[in-house]
Amino acid sequence: MKQSIGAKTLAFPTPTWVVGTYDMNGKPNAMTVAWAGICCSNPPCISVSLRKATYSYAGIMENKAFTVNIPSEDYVKEADYLGIASGRDEDKFEAACLTPVRSELVPAPYVEEFPFVLECKLLHTLEIGLHTLFVGEILDIKAEESVLDENKNPDIEKIRPVIYSSGNRSYYGVGCNLGKAFSIGKNDK
């Protein structure tokens, strides 16, 4: 029997994504977010939700662009740090020993050390209570060759993205492959 636990911000899985922006002075900044996901296939778009109080909020509003950087498990400590510290107070790239790279497509930096990056131009904003939902059109994806399969598609087991659990406030890795999508369910008819 299911038990009611109330209205909470619980959904599984929740990504651990790092949003890259420039501040008003052109300084690179990065912030870890969990309220995010794909929101449209044509045009390809993602959404991220930030509070107005964050330093990255102003950077997105100013530049009308952002990057989404997906860290591997090797960089879970750095990703956590980027969600704790504020770019108002310090250079988070320098403090985390990460390298900002200027995107050629959008006025936003990406993290060199992270294996998978989405470069996005801002399409829409929607204020929802405490957060603002930013919808970005994906203009390009950059992936390390080492995380691509033989068909040049990203391989989740090679990327090893970090997943966040808001219920117990912990990070996890990706589990095992359960089967081919749009295929394994065909035998259940």
TrEMBL record:
Group of enzyme by EC: oxidoreductase
MF (Gene Ontology): oxidoreductase activity
Enzyme Commission numbers on file: 1.5.1.-
Gene3D superfamilies: Electron Transport, Fmn-binding Protein, Chain A
InterPro entries per the UniProt record, alphabetical: Flavin_Rdtase-like_dom, Flavoredoxin, Split_barrel_FMN-bd
A Pfam family matched in the record: Flavin_Reduct
Residue span, Flavin reductase like domain: 9-164
Names of the cofactor(s): FMN
Record's keyword terms, sorted: Flavoprotein, Oxidoreductase
Keyword Oxidoreductase: yes
Signal peptide: none
Family designation: Belongs to the flavoredoxin family.
UniProt name for this protein: Flavin reductase family protein
Organism: Methanosarcina baikalica
